[in-house]
Amino acid sequence: MTDTARQQLISRPFDPFDFMARYGTLIALALLILFNFAFTRNFATMQTLNVNLTQVCTIVIVAIGMTLVIATGGIDLSVGSLMAISGALAPMIFLGKIVPIDNVALAVAAAMIIAVGVAGLFGLFNGWLIARFRIQPIVATLVLFIAGRGIAQVLTNGNLQTFRVPQFQWIGLGRLFGIPVQVVLMVLLVIAAAWMLKRTVFGRQIIAIGGNERAAELSGIAVSRVKLVVYTISGLCAGIAGLVVIAINSSSDANLVGMGMELDAIAAVAVGGTLLSGGKATIIGTLLGAMTIQLVRYTLLANGVPDAAALVVKAGIIVLAVWIQQQGRRA
Amino acid sequence: MTRPRLISLLGSYGVVLALLLLVLFGWARYDYFLGFFNITSVLRYNSMFALVALGMCFVIMTGGIDLSVGSTAALGSVVAALASPQGAWIGLGAGVGAGLCVGLINAILVTRLKIMPFVATLAMMLAASGTALLLADNQSVSVSYESGFTSIGQDNFLGFPIPAWIAIMAYVVGWIVVNFTSTGRGVLAVGGNEDATRLMGLPADRIKFLVYLASGGLAGLAGVILASQFGAGQPIEGVGWELFAIAAVVVGGTLLTGGVGSVGATLAGVLLLGILFNVLNFENGKGWISLSAYWQSVIRGLFLLVVVILQAKLSSRGSVAVRDY
Fold it and tell me: What is the Cα–Cα distance from A148 to A156, expressed in whole angstroms?
């Protein structure tokens, strides 16, 4: 070991906050799993794994889009409402309420593509407001947060749509090689997004914009276009999540689908270590964040703590995670 | 010189103008729109939102945000309902106190632990909602009808609803604070440029502390009115209030980046969004069109859209004039 290397080691003593900021979420998750092995009955079963994974899926899918949006320094409050729109639209199409389609497979395919596509278009609309008019993301997406659920309710007249269409519900109830389809979907999306963020020019541009928008623009990045794409992706993710939720429930209630999802997704992103001010993002972190929050809730419920108390604990975890990350950065 | 001036005037009084036009429209079109009953019921109902929006306005003027106000109001309503058998004043104090507690935690998280307002108040939104559900045992809590607690929300004083009196007083106090006290000027200074404010020796952290505390207290007060008006503390009410309040503040022309803001315009924003609902109900009553309740949120969203686009256009043109002041 050379002298300079040794000096570097000495001048950078071990910093617990920095360590926690990097690996805290992972450690918390590992501790939670260990705790459950020790104290929660029937924890080490496939059923527990399935329950937790299927519940966390929709949050993770939405949170992927949210991570990208937050990486640019923005926020998307409209995701829950977009889930409601996609969830309201799909059954209307495959049940033939708009245009009767005889072929079930064709109807289901059309329903999925159109529902997700419409959600994507609404996402594009968000991006347009933000890029074209320079409206703050929180206000721009507030428009669809308010109007979006209303649109879904108007489409369905507020009625519950129930259905039993196995071809459609495959995405919520089916299995691929014994793994729930939505889990496969989630993993694929996580890998694609993580790869895009780390390895593609577009991904680096997202981070650059979040770090310093003016500098990014001056260095020739098409900031408006990147934002348009990012909000569209967020809309598409919300659309997919909406389909998964109604497929699991065998019904679609525009008043309930995606309710509060924006907060769950933002919480997962924050706990996962993505900077809410933009410029630093991790998709894997978001996945771990969402799983930590889910597992905390499961642990509390499985040990007889009421759901309302779990909310308070969740609040504490969000604050603690963000605080630790801040200490790590300051050091 | 006159053109930018005109535009910036339109920017600051646009919301008042829109409110006047909407009221004129309603007066001309519907028989009982300016009737005593309609006016008092609109004011009685919207006073809760007005209080929440006032706190939000102050928070936003410092460049922050308070997402916890809806759950804080729910918590306030539950606590007030639980305390109401002890007397009207005790119920009132307990509800406001619960709100102040949430505000206090928000203030500590933001000013001491330096957690971003968005995250800190998001967490408190969950915590307040959870606490409200725990205290209320997951159901609404009936208030005491013997102690006179319900008169806070349901009775009139000098022929005018008490909640509206409370809201008006709060806005007068808020207006005085912003315009005539050093703390109030400090609120705008912190939002304009926090570092500069600190360097000038203003107590930036103390100002922010007070602002979150006030927002919590006002949300708690709104919760007291909620419980008293509807006869029950409601742990699941208040969902989405924070976003409604933000919308009202934005419609009133307060910039979310902080540093600019008006208490009066916020009140106009609340009334504008509230009366929009009212007009829609009257329109349904006319029978020409029949819009379900679901259209109301669509129309509100569209309205917010128009306002923010107009503001974006006005501020980009009027920016030179604004900088000259």
Answer: 13
